[in-house]
Design goal:
The complex is a heterodimer of chains A (395) and B (353).
Chain A: H1 7-10, H2 20-30, H3 32-47, E1 52-53, E2 67-68, E3 71-72, E4 85-89, E5 96-98, H4 99-112, E6 116-118, E7 126-131, H5 136-145, E8 161-162, H6 176-186, H7 188-192, E9 202-205, H8 214-217, E10 220-227, E11 231-232, H9 234-240, H10 246-251, E12 259-261, E13 266-268, H11 278-282, E14 287-288, E15 292-299, E16 313-319, H12 326-342, H13 349-356, H14 358-365
Parallel strand pairs in A: 8-9, 9-10
Antiparallel strand pairs in A: 1-3, 2-4, 4-7, 6-7, 10-15, 11-14, 12-13, 15-16
Chain B: H1 17-22, E1 26-33, E2 36-41, E3 46-52, E4 57-59, H2 60-74, E5 77-80, E6 86-90, H3 96-105, E7 121-122, H4 137-146, H5 148-152, E8 162-165, E9 179-184, H6 196-199, H7 202-207, E10 214-217, E11 222-225, H8 235-239, E12 252-257, E13 272-279, H9 286-302, H10 309-316, H11 318-325
Parallel strand pairs in B: 7-8, 8-9
Antiparallel strand pairs in B: 1-2, 2-3, 3-6, 5-6, 9-12, 10-11, 12-13
Helix pairs in contact in B: 4-9
The chains are: A alpha+beta (395), B alpha+beta (353).
């Protein structure tokens, strides 16, 4: 038997969890790019170092986004991945697929690329992993014919993403899928032609469980919520009592202690509720969000680069979200215009607000200051007033 | 010429008929068993979801195999989750068990629901990134092999979200995970003064540094790096391939714990540093796997029902977290960046460990 060229990676074919090495080997059987990728990865496992270079602007006609340039630093050893660029393909909102669409995507990728993918990448796109420069345009042309388009990359609006929302979830307070699709279709230009100071991410979660991590991972987070009382079906509460310790698991873990349970009836003091979702998560049959539904809009969330990670901040406690989402889109555009005008290169929205002040931001985009925006008012006395708030001395 | 700016396919054309009929009218759901969800609509119709694990890096043949099963059991409809799982969507209850049986014969793990460990969100690593400090798919595979039982059962106090990013640029945005595995470089990029003049543009290299650590050396047509300012992000290597940052002996992995994004009970929070450095030890990263397993097991034994990792740690205190896990506390755990003082203790209320 011939000795394996990939002894280290072979060890990752064993074990119960599905193996990416098996996937790479499967692709390598019919594709020389996938073969060289596998062998280069083996070298990385041996050297404990990556073997990719960035560099060179590559892309498709008319777009500045959607293709990530990648070159091997050992083209002498792995000529088939000398150029091995990634295409980001905008996923159908909510990652729903019909198999015919997925098969089309596979056919295009077998024809033009390595046959390897990520389903899906971190931002949400379907990732087509690796092809040569000369294949990019023809691959895009075939993708377009199959009904797909590229997602965002670089200093652009990145591919927006959404939770499953009303497609399957009883907790959906907004139509996260429709909001996301509407934004995506409205802003194709901002996605495909990078013209911002840096990246801009939008994620839509239909309730505060936030299954798309919008509060941590997007510059603009749209999170469904409600006003008014949690809807209670007391009979269904009783029906949960044999399987859930309602006092201990529901009432005692409520962060605002706004619930009382006497063994027969659940009482909720709704004015104290902060809509955290814990009780509804535990008893979906018995408790439902209130009837007046909308979204909280938050901004500034990001990973650490550059000035440290940020979680998004509340800027609009409640906004009704109904098609055509004019109020939301007007706000997004005012925010992006202000950011575009004021940010330094590679300064994310949250960092710009940190630098110039929330007060300045709110005035610029025309939003009123409300207590829901802060955990607490300031503790330092370094207060700025606007010129018109100061009495001018009369001489 | 192909059409541009057509956007993604309309999701409405991708929804199974049972979802189209009951869109926005779901009443409640139950987890029938690990990996199997039943959603009941106001109409009384049921939607069954079978969730299966995936290595994320998958071949077109694998996608076609998934399609074959979706055609056979689900009238051709499926979706993927935000954690890379595959979800088969069907309305015929009689097909649920046969689908699970076929998934078992093909070695797809079914689970990741409820108080389980779902799939690990992760990045590209050595497979396809230019600044990784570790691999992504490899550590994930090694770890999921070891904690597989937590995926196919739901026995933990609450779900544990694990994520891996192969450098601190964090395209995986792991910073709010119950357990985050983060690749780190620890040494500054070294400009190759012979190559920089030929392959790099000095002004753009200087501008690429987020902390202003790079200065132009116009006389020698190269750049210098200030080690006091560099925090090892690798952005300069992106624009100047002649200043490699990777360092096989010093690159490795750090472990962070206690983050969450959901608002349930406690507010969303960042993960905090648990272990500053573990070595890269391919192909199975035993130090990393052991460290994560230890944290999971201590959490499983000590947390109360419904407590996430961060909620448990906040209840018992970080000082007790280090005692219970046996993880050494070092000077690296004490913040010295921007808002560091906010994390210093300003009371006499603490535990002895």
């Amino acid at each position: 038997m011939a000795e394996s060229k990939t002894p280290l990676l072979d060890e990752l074919e064993t074990g119960k969890w599905p193996s990416f090495v098996k996937e790479m080997k499967q692709a390598a059987e019919k594709n020389p790019m996938a073969r060289d990728l596998l062998d280069q990865l083996e070298l990385s496992y041996k050297d404990k170092i990556g073997h990719w270079k960035h560099g060179g602007i590559v892309g498709v006609k008319g777009y500045g986004s959607g293709v990530i340039g990648r070159y091997s630093d050992r083209p002498d050893l792995f000529p088939n991945v000398q150029a091995f660029h990634t295409l980001r393909v905008n996923h159908p909102t909510g990652w729903f697929y019909k198999t015919d669409a997925l098969r089309n995507l596979c056919d295009v990728w077998d024809k033009h690329g390595s046959g390897l993918t990520n389903m899906h990448g971190s931002t949400g796109d379907a990732i087509l992993l690796g092809t040569r420069t000369e294949h990019l345009q023809s691959c895009f042309d075939d993708l377009s014919d199959a009904g797909f388009d590229l997602g965002g990359s670089g200093s652009a609006l990145r591919t927006p993403s959404a939770c499953v929302g009303p497609g399957r979830c009883e907790w959906a307070c907004i139509d996260s899928l429709d909001v996301c699709y509407n934004i995506t279709m409205s802003y194709q230009d901002k996605i495909h032609r990078p013209m911002f100071p840096y990246k801009f991410k939008i994620k839509v979660a239909a309730c505060s469980n936030d299954c798309v991590a919008s509060i941590a991972r997007s510059d603009l987070s749209i999170i469904g919520t409600w006003k008014g009382d949690i809807q209670i079906d007391q009979n269904e509460v009783l029906a949960y009592a044999p399987t859930i310790d309602i006092q201990k698991e529901v009432c005692d873990l409520c962060p605002t202690r706004c619930m009382e349970w006497n063994g027969k009836e659940l009482k909720i003091y709704n004015e104290d509720c902060n809509r955290c979702m814990h009780c509804i998560n535990l008893m979906p049959k018995a408790l439902r969000p209130g009837k007046e539904k909308g979204a909280t809009i938050l901004i500034g969330g990001k990973a650490p680069i550059l000035q440290g990670a940020l979680l998004s901040w509340v800027i609009v406690p409640f906004m009704k979200l109904e098609p055509p989402y004019t109020e939301l889109k007007d706000l997004i555009e005012r925010i992006q215009d202000w950011w575009d005008e004021n940010a330094k290169s590679r300064e994310r929205l949250g960092e710009l607000i940190k630098r110039l002040g929330m007060r300045v931001f709110l005035r610029a985009v025309g939003l009123p200051a409300v207590p829901q925006m802060v955990k607490a008012p300031r503790t330092n006395p370094y207060v700025f007033f606007w010129p018109e708030e100061i009495k001018k001395e009369v001489k | 010429m192909a059409k541009t700016d057509i956007g993604p396919p309309d999701y409405k054309t991708m929804l199974p008929p049972v979802i189209q009929r009951n869109y926005g009218k779901w009443r409640y759901h139950e987890i029938l068993k690990p990996g199997v969800l039943m959603h009941i609509a106001e109409s009384g119709e049921a939607l069954y979801t079978i969730r299966a694990g995936s290595p994320r890096l998958i071949s077109t043949d694998h996608i076609r195999e998934i399609c074959d099963m979706a055609d056979k059991y689900c009238d051709g409809y499926l979706r993927f989750t935000s954690r890379h799982n595959i979800e088969f969507l069907l309305d015929d209850k009689d097909k649920v068990e046969p689908l699970i049986a076929e998934l078992a014969t093909r070695n797809y793990p079914v689970g990741g629901t409820g108080h389980a460990i779902s799939n690990i969100v992760h990045t590209q690593g050595w497979v396809h990134c230019h600044t990784p400090a570790t691999d992504a798919s490899g550590p994930v595979k090694a770890l999921m092999d070891e904690i597989y039982d937590y995926f196919v059962t739901a026995t933990l106090p609450n779900h544990v979200r694990i994520a891996l990013a192969c450098c601190l640029n964090m395209c995986g945005a792991v910073h709010c995970s119950d357990i985050a595995i983060l690749g780190i470089h620890r040494t500054v990029p070294i400009p190759d003064n012979a190559r920089v003049p030929n392959v790099c543009e000095i002004p753009s290299t200087v501008a690429s540094c987020p902390t202003g650590a790079i200065r132009g050396d116009m006389k020698n047509k190269t750049v210098t790096v200030n080690p006091e300012k560099c925090m090892y992000c690798g952005n300069c290597y992106t624009v100047c391939p002649a200043m490699p940052i990777a360092d096989p002996e010093n690159d490795g992995i750090s472990i962070w714990v206690g983050g969450k994004v959901s608002n349930a009970r406690s507010a969303p929070k960042f993960s905090k540093l648990a272990i500053p450095f573990l070595p890269n030890n391919p192909p199975r990263w035993p130090e990393v796997v052991d460290a994560v397993k230890n944290i999971i097991e201590v959490y499983a034994n000590h947390a109360r029902k419904h407590e996430r990792v961060g909620e448990w740690i906040e209840r018992v205190g970080w000082e007790r977290f280090f005692t219970l896990t046996g993880i050494p506390f070092t000077d690296k755990h004490i913040d010295d960046f921007d808002m560091a003082t906010e994390t210093f203790r300003t009371s006499t209320q603490f535990k002895w460990g």
